[in-house]
Design a protein that fits this description.
This protein is α+β, with helices and mostly antiparallel strands and 235 residues long. The chain has twelve helices and four strands, in the order βααβαααααααββααα. Strands 2-1-3-4 form a four-stranded mixed β-sheet, with helices on both faces. The longest helix is centred in the N-terminal third of the chain and has 17 residues.
Length: 235
């Protein structure tokens, strides 16, 4: 099992986008040192492959009430960060398209750039990241071969890589995002980001600086939540 601190992210989750934004703007060195792992709700093929590996996908459907809360909460958190959110319309979401393309971006040495571009496209431009052509365009804009990104969802080796990623999600007990792991410590939701940063201590080269950061996430971001089962995270 990896000993590096891990950051489970998802293009689907607005809280994951906001956590990524906070890490990129306030703690870029930490973000570079984390092991990034994608999280997504699998389609039928991916779930079958995961089951064959002995894994399962931990998922609890969101209630209507929680969804309505999320819409208001995310807009409030985005405005606090000076961000304007454009809600995407997910008529037929196919999360493999973007998340398997992430592996193509990693292979091209452009994983972080791809993540930033896809997050921006989805949450600030309202674009459909379940469209292979859209993903190819976004990939090309950051130096990833468009064909490699577009075809990732159809390639056996990428599907197998995705199944292994889903198995890691199961083994790490990840039930929603953003999800952070530091050794035996687990933190779910953007409201726990500062606790995760504090837990790092000397576990990364920049860990000691986190404890004396003049502008930690908790100083500017309200960590309270109206739902005790909702720590600023979603599946």
């Amino acid at each position: 099992m990896s000993r590096r601190p891990r950051f489970y992210f998802s293009f689907r989750s607005p809280y994951s986008w906001l956590a990524y934004h906070d890490l990129r703007t306030e703690h870029p060195q930490v973000l570079r040192e984390l092991e990034w792992r994608p999280f997504w709700e699998p389609d039928v093929q991916s779930e079958r492959m995961l089951t064959e590996l002995g894994g399962r996908f931990i998922y609890a459907p969101m209630s209507k009430e929680k969804h309505l809360y999320l819409l208001r909460d995310v807009r409030r958190l985005a405005q606090r960060r000076g961000l304007t959110i454009t809600w995407p319309l997910d008529d037929a979401p196919w999360w493999e398209v973007a998340h398997l393309a992430y592996f193509a971006a990693v292979d091209a040495g452009q994983g972080p750039a791809f993540v930033e571009r896809v997050y921006r496209a989805r949450w600030q431009e309202g674009r459909n990241i379940s469209d292979p052509d859209t993903i190819a365009e976004l990939a090309e804009s950051v130096g990833v071969p468009g064909d490699a990104a577009r075809s990732a969802v159809d390639r056996t080796e990428m599907r197998e890589r995705g199944a292994q990623a889903l198995l890691a999600i199961d083994r790490d007990g990840v039930f929603g995002v953003p999800f952070f792991i530091d050794r035996s410590q687990r933190f779910w939701g953007i409201d726990r980001l500062n606790d995760f940063l504090a837990s790092l201590g000397g576990n990364t080269t920049s860990g000691a600086a986190l404890l004396t950061d003049a502008s930690p996430a908790s100083a500017t971001h309200d960590r309270r939540t109206a739902d005790h089962g909702h720590a600023g995270g979603c599946g």
